[in-house]
Design a protein that fits this description.
Layout lengths: L1 E3 L2 E6 L4 H11 L15 E7 L6 H6 L5 E5 L8 H6 L4 E2 L6 H17 L1 H9 L19 E5 L3 H11 L4 E5 L10 E2 L3 H6 L3 E4 L13 H7 L4 E4 L8 H9 L5 E4 L10 H4 L4 E3 L8 H21 L8
This protein binds (2R)-2,3-dihydroxypropanoic acid.
(2R)-2,3-dihydroxypropanoic acid binds next to loops.
Length: 311
């Protein structure tokens, strides 16, 4: 294993697994690739995640690289096409984080519709004690929910929100025949028919800017946006403009286009809830993700195949 300042970045075939294990489990996250400069040749498996991926340039510098293991379900920070071209398989950590991400999505729906974080600030600022009234908010029970991307996490969100008697519709690249939810043929059609639009699509070039100004306008002045997917899926400038113009009612965000940078225009607004990309961030889930990373590395080093390869 190659150890760099801040911890190991890259695992070699001769990896000392217990050391990697300790590092991943202690951190509950793959460390960044920022200090890749100086990594010696001989690296065969790269463990990356949380916005850090293996680009073509990194691949050039790691001529012995044979596999990439992505700590996280979203692997869009890696140059997937280039990896495919070079025959380098990628694994991610599916399934184990679905519940925690779905929990946070529902939390954001409730928070932004009911103004919980804003109400908390209102109390702390002494405005309630000073005689002010907190404005009325919107009802979650019975709301129309649109889910953009009905994969495993989208389904986990839908199942939870069924408990709130919500009316669920969705748009995905492919229509599912195993659910009863109404299918919208486009993001704009979905946005026009819901009170809260929840973004759960994968990131990457195929979904870049999918939620753009027309989609936000279709959501309407009483509509809310929740994003637990990738910041790249939402046109952030269009989102800021839609909030400023009152074309949507509010937004709950766990992800941003240029993390950890959050647009300054959002930080002063009471109609947005801002989380620091923590939807999967529980001890239980990060431990399960770390285990899956290690199982993938181990399987690859011992059998030459990954346990949970991406398509
Ligand atoms: C993922 O797994 O892609 C998440 O964004 C990490 O929290």
């Amino acid at each position: 294993m190659t150890s760099l300042p801040g911890g190991p970045r890259v695992v070699r075939a001769s990896a000392m697994m217990p050391e990697l294990e300790r590092d991943l489990v202690d951190r509950y996250a793959a460390p960044s690739l920022a200090e890749l400069d100086g990594v010696v040749p001989g690296v065969e498996v790269a463990v990356v995640g949380f916005g850090n991926g293996v680009t073509a340039e990194v691949m050039d510098r790691l001529p012995d690289l044979r596999a990439i293991v992505n700590f996280g379900v979203g692997y869009d920070a890696n140059d997937v096409d280039e990896a495919r071209r070079r025959g380098i398989p990628i694994a991610n950590t599916p399934d184990v984080l679905d519940d925690c991400v779905a929990d946070v999505a529902v939390g954001l729906v409730i928070d932004v519709m009911r103004g919980l974080s804003a109400a908390d600030r209102f109390v702390r600022r002494g405005e309630w004690a000073g005689g002010s009234r907190f404005p009325l908010t919107r009802r979650v029970t019975g709301a129309r929910v649109g889910i953009l991307g009905l994969g495993r996490i989208g389904l986990a969100i839908a199942r939870r929100l069924e408990g709130f008697d919500t009316v669920i519709s969705y748009h995905s690249r492919n229509r599912r025949d195993d659910v009863q939810y109404a299918y919208a043929t486009s993001p704009i059609e979905l946005a026009a028919s819901c009170d809260v639009l929840i973004v759960v699509t994968p990131g990457g070039p195929g979904t870049q800017g999918l939620v753009d100004a027309p989609v936000l306008t279709a959501l309407g002045p009483d509509g809310f946006l929740v994003n637990v997917a990738r910041g790249s899926v939402v046109d952030e400038d269009a989102l800021v403009a839609a909030l400023e113009d009152g074309r949507i009612a509010g937004a709950g965000l766990d992800v941003y286009a240029h993390e950890p940078r959050v647009p300054e225009a959002l930080t002063g607004r009471d109609d947005v809830v801002l989380l620091p990309h923590v939807a999967s961030g529980t001890v239980e889930t990060r431990r399960a993700m770390a285990d899956l990373v290690l199982d993938n590395v181990e399987r690859f080093l011992s059998h030459g195949v990954l346990l949970t390869p991406v398509d």
